[in-house]
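User: Please fill in residues for this 168-position structure.
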């Protein structure tokens, strides 16, 4: 098989996976809105929707990355395929973590709240968590250190040191 064709198939496969992932998120969202949805979904609708929001944020980020790598930079490589496949799942989990931290009061939204606006704050933070997983995890580790005294992971320490050296 021609390497160029193989690369196109990989690119198409990743893009199709991401579009199907967004479709699955939409399908689960519809299920959360139905009165006939399972009780565990109705009882945890906000957490489920935060996970969906995080997944959507991650999918947006990745679809943009596919576009940039393919069309703008023209440097698509298959070495990143595992990242494209795993990242939406991590983004979804980060959306749920955002829900847990907001619900526990460990992260606070400073925006003024309108009636029902509280849920939109949850969704907004979940989308941001999915869009920028690395920064969100750093923030979670900062909150964990301040609240519980849990030291940052080695990865977070390396990232913090890199950020401080970049700013000088």
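Assistant: Residues filled in for all 168 positions:
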């Amino acid at each position: 098989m021609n390497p160029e064709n193989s690369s196109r198939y990989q690119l198409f496969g990743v893009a199709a996976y991401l579009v199907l992932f967004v479709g699955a998120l939409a399908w689960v969202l519809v299920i959360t809105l139905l009165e006939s949805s399972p009780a565990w979904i109705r009882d945890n609708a906000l957490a489920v929707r935060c996970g969906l929001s995080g997944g959507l944020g991650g999918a947006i980020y990745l679809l943009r990355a596919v576009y940039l790598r393919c069309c703008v930079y023209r440097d698509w490589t298959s070495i990143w395929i595992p990242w494209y496949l795993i990242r939406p799942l991590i983004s979804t989990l980060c959306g749920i973590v955002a829900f847990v931290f907001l619900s526990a009061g460990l992260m606070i939204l400073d925006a003024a709240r309108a009636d029902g606006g509280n849920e939109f704050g949850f969704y907004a933070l979940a989308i941001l968590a999915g869009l920028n997983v690395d920064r969100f995890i750093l923030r979670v580790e900062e909150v964990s250190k301040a609240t519980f005294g849990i030291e940052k992971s080695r990865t977070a320490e390396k990232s913090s040191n890199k950020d401080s050296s970049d700013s000088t």
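For context: The chain has two domains: 3-131, 134-168.
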